[in-house]
């Protein structure tokens, strides 16, 4: 089967029909450095100008000639007027009650910073969270945490958006119908009673890898209370192969970290060290330390 001739092939065929003499004359007239993406652009032929104009045909020549400037301003003015009328709604009266006993260190309009950590699997990255009136609004790296040293990654920055996700559940629901909190407590108490009678038989807890001692202790207390319950840990991308490697090398499971700030040559096979979750933040910082030249007498980079 012969391949279908595309527009790019037809455009390349025109390259063979360029006027070489005219191109050379144009090059003689140039002064200084000039750059061209192709020979067609250098030649400046009408065919290339037409091709460049129609490079994005869905967005080229958007405006219709029948719409003039006066008509455009008329349509925009009408749109703004309708938007203003739609915003003129009467809000219900609300009563603002000040704090009788204001919380400690909470000043309206002044942000409050607190240290936290974002765990992912067996690792965590230290963060500083900025909050306004008890609501987190921004996160940055914690300079005192060894895993970040003041830096952060895209996952940590986007973690705040999960608090304000409109798709999060706002009410308690059961089988698609809204239920009250008292109904949930009643249903939960009946389930707890049945679990106590059977020792937790049929109860399964599914989590990811947990590095928090507090959460691990809470789950262990629950499993101790219900001996027949089972705790399952699973992740789509786990680190079991790394753990088995440390067991073969050192006889016990260990976590290992690269000291890229001391390496002169870095060879990575099948691993993107600078983009790994959590550890990539520290690795990227350490790697760039060996790329900065502070002493001109020792101008050597990794």
Structure description:
- There is one protein chain.
- The chain is α+β, with helices and mostly antiparallel strands and 302 residues long.
- 36% of the residues lie in helices and 13% in strands.
- The chain has ten helices and seven strands.
- The strands form three sheets. The chain has a three-stranded antiparallel beta sheet with strand order 1-2-3, with no helix packed on it. The protein has a two-stranded antiparallel ribbon with strand order 4-5.
- It is extended, with a radius of gyration of 32 Å.
**Spans of at least 5 consecutive residues with low confidence:** 1-16
Major β-sheet, in short?
A: 3 strands, antiparallel
Give the ordered list of helices and strands. Answer: HHHHHEEEHEEHEHEHH
How many whole angstroms does the radius of gyration measure?
Answer: 32 Å
**Termini Cα gap:** 52 Å
Structure class: alpha+beta
The whole-number mean of residue pLDDT values reads 79
Shape: extended
- List the quaternary state of the chains: single chain
Question: Approximately what portion of the residues adopt beta-strand conformation?
Answer: 5-15%
Number of helices: 10
